[in-house]
Amino acid sequence: MTEFLVEFFLVFMVIGAIIALETKDLLSSVISVGAVGVAASICFLLLGAPDIASTQLVVEVLTVIILIKATIRHDLVTIDGDREFFGLTVTLAFLFVFSLFGLRAFWSLPEFGTPGIERISAAPSNNYISSGFKQTGSSNILTAILLDYRGLDTFAELCALFAGIWGALAIMRVRSRKKKTGNHDEKK
After folding, report:
1. Which of 55, 19, 58, 54 lies closest to 36, judged by CA?
2. Model-level pTM greater than 0.70?
3. I need a labelling partner for 66 at 20 to 30 A (CA). Which of 32, 37, 58, 85 fits?
4. Count of CB atoms situated within 10 Å of the CB of 86
5. Residues 139/141/143/144 CA torsion (nearest 10 deg)
């Protein structure tokens, strides 16, 4: 079932990317890009990488917020009667599909209190706990996991988060710099 869901979301991401490229409306394009990012986050979650999924979601939210802010200044959106009905229909269809996905995920959760280590004997966490101190020489298992076993992954996640934050700050700084130069010109 997981393979089917990943394939479904991959097709969804391809369709969203095509819509983002082909649409004339900038706001619709940004929303399509956001949908692609959320679908990628769900794919990472289905493939067993919740840390990458959460990083993808944070970066996607920051990117979409920045792009929407930039788009709203440059693009006035008007809604026609026919487009409103079509948009509502597509939105309700996607909400229905994602609700089914959410219910399926909710029903497949293990009973509360059941540790993941007991359910999956080949989980990497079993190796981390049983031989992590010997293999890494660390006195703290969390540090051993983050820096020794998952060092490159942790570094890539931090780089992605800092790039998103610096990108947001750079865009905001350009806007405030324009305001300052405008006020300086008025004083002269």
Report:
1. 19
2. no
3. 85
4. 11
5. 90
- Domain extent for 179: 151-187
Tell me, what DSSP letter sits at residue 114?
Answer: -
Structure tokens at 106: 């909710």
* Span 13-37, pLDDT tens digits: 898 888 888 888 888 888 888 889 9
Those residues with Cβ within 8 angstroms of residue 113's Cβ, 6 or more apart along the chain or in another chain? none
Tokens linked to 182: 């405008």
pLDDT digit string (tens) for 136-169? Answer: 888 888 888 877 888 888 788 788 888 878 877 7
> What is the C-alpha separation between 23 and 113, in angstroms, rounded?
48
* 6 part of a folded domain: yes
Place of tokens 């934050």: 165
Q: How far is the C-alpha of 47 from the C-alpha of 129, rounded, in Å?
A: 22
Cα R_g (the chain), whole angstroms = 22
Q: How far apart are CA 59 and CA 163, in angstroms?
A: 9
Instruction: Classify the phi-psi angles of 57: left when phi > 0, otherwise alpha if psi is within -120 to 50, otherwise beta.
Output: alpha
Among 18, 39, 74, the domain-final residue is 74
38 inside domain: yes
89-135 pLDDT, tens per residue?
877 888 888 788 777 777 776 677 777 677 777 777 788 888 888 88
